[in-house]
Amino acid sequence: MSAPPEGxxxxxxxxxxxxxxxxxxxxxxxxxxxxxxxxxSAPAGTPVLEVGGxxxxxxxxxxxxxxxxxxxxxxxxxxxxxxxxxxxGFTTVCCMPNTEPPTDSRAAVEFILRRAATHGxxxxxxxxxxxxxxxxxELAEMGELAAAGVVGFSDDGSPVADSRLxxxxxxxxxxxxxxVIDHCQDPALSQGGVVNEGAVSSRLGLVGMxxxxxxxxxxxxxxLAELTGxxxxxxxxxxxxxxxxxxxxKALGLPVTAEVTPHHLALTEGRVMGVxxxxxxxxxxxxxxxxxxxxxxxPPLRTERDRQALLAALRAGLIDAIATDHAxxxxxxxxxxxxxxxxxxxxxETAAGVLLTLVDKGxxxxxxxxxxxxxxxxxxxxxxxxxALRAGAAADLVLIDPRAEWAVEPAQFASKGHNTPLAGxxxxxxxxxxxxxxxxxxxxPALEMKGAPLA
Amino acid sequence: xxxxxxxxxHVLDLDDFSAxxxxxxxxxxxxxxxxxxxxxxxxxxxRGRTVVTAxxxxxxxxxxxxxxxxxxxxxxxVNLNVALSSTTKGESLLNTVxxxxxxxxxxxxxxxxxxxxxxxxxxxxxxxxxxxGDGAHAHPTQALLDLYTMRERLGRVERLKVAIIGDIRHxxxxxxxxxxxxxxxxxxALCGPATLLPRGPELELLPTVALTTHLEEALEGAExxxxxxxxxxxxxSGLLPSLREYRELYQIDGARLARAHPRALVLHPxxxxxxxxxxxxxxxxxxxxxxxxxxxxxxxxxxxxxxYGHGEVSDVRAP
Lengths: 455, 319
Fold this sequence. Notes:
heterodimer, A: alpha/beta, TIM Barrel, eight-stranded mixed beta sheet, five-stranded parallel beta sheet, 18 strands, B: alpha/beta, four-stranded parallel beta sheet, 9 strands, about 35% helix, globular
């Protein structure tokens, strides 16, 4: 990390400030001083960064990443994962507890916070387990986890199958005011599944996971949220049918929130077959790139109908946040038979590009995307100090060139996980700099070469 | 007739074969069958080439069929004993195949329990890959020998009414047959209990077929009747109430076969559960071509090895 613009601060001039939390979207100057967003206007002599034509957003918040440390440092570490996040424009990430050991104790939480403080490029907020060891049998010590600093509870990757235990988890969690985050998937219905169930699974002879496996758990969890009054957050929704349950829950005024990933917004199950874009009505020979394990993700990429429903739900404000579900893996985890390959996409460094490309194509509004990356997750975390460009708040922000075109090159990722189905894809919209607490967490070489005073 | 694709590197499924190419293989298999009928059934076509059979899933008939085919073409044939090999020491599939290639293998014949495994190898390694069955996905050489047997016995495949009966959902044989039969213009009906049939939307990316749970419907006028092996674990996993009920509803016996075309041919990809999906009288009856299928299998595999197993090749698929 570079030094902060010591003493004299920094005036960021001429950018388009998009700050949905405060309902602002205008060309304005931004003065940073002492690592904070300053109230007063910049004194004469303040270094100036001209950013005409660029977009300035509050730093992105990702509710759902896998940093893999401790236990799977070959896939990712807190250092590399947060560097990847900074490159993606994120200044806050919430890390899932499926590490080894899992984040089910004060010691595990403190380890993450300590590593993040010494090695992290940005803010890391740990999520604790719902059950001990993520085994789904006994509640984790939620009180201790809350005191240690977790921001929610989840057994992500291993849905809590036992409905009675889930009810108790929700009841118990209320005392701490933290959400229970569920990876909604009926384990029996999705057993053995590796892709979405449907035309593609049948064509490839792979076991499918029906959308109904997600839907029934979403419905169950919403019923339990109603029963217990607990805050429920639905992780990475993938199915159109789930959205209908979410709509009903929100209409009832239940404390239910939801997130969606960039890959479920942009891609469909055809990717697994090596087909880019919509599926043809009839497919002839399988492309050479069929059985692309980099498109194997849980929940699976689904149909165009599902994708459209997720886009519509995001536009309608039903979905509160976009989260990457960044799931880095090694080459060995992915360069193998499809059933054996690990689930997951390394998503932090492509998220902004994927989403801004959707904006460029007219599928989403820019403010919808920025809100779902900033104000939405901040509200969910109960952190009004994050996700907004408020005077006096930490200077967490991201500079974006919404028109810059670039090709995804996994070999250039800061993340150890090069696993992305987007290798080679051309995206429109690029993060040029990420400022975290007034420090440069990431600076694109293009901006550096312009002689920016940041570095 | 179209000439066969000279650029073909692999036999992964029949979805990328034209009618012309399939017919060329069948014609070549005719010639191979003549070779097999000779006193010394051997030609020097693949002398000096090495064929490795790598069966990651138990199989006797397909492996032996390929080995006999390779030997009849004078190739060196090596069987990788997977149970004793480095895979049990944790070596990846790609590394095993890299090693085999370095040891001089020209053709890999692979059977694998996971769908797509041959595509993985074909995508990364410059070696001729013949798919001998991958999970529930494809079994192109079985489909070709089925087509060969149909043509041999009935004179054509075009416009034949073919009924495939049983566990379609999990069947690589059915899937590959769909492509081959569609290419040659046959009409296919798939029949079985609803839990073993593809669900409607799942057929969207496969050739057009009729789908029914009623056996009588599928058999009506069928010129080829192909019951599939019913794996006993289907009952254990709850897809069927009992083998007894399956037998009662779907077994091909004499009375049911009488509903099909009078000269209907009975095929079975094997191994058979005699008394479950097929009655003994039908399995060994006058209309059964099940034993011919086995013999024809060697000829068809010789044709494939001959056509694709000795070309010098350079079109490596990029990793």
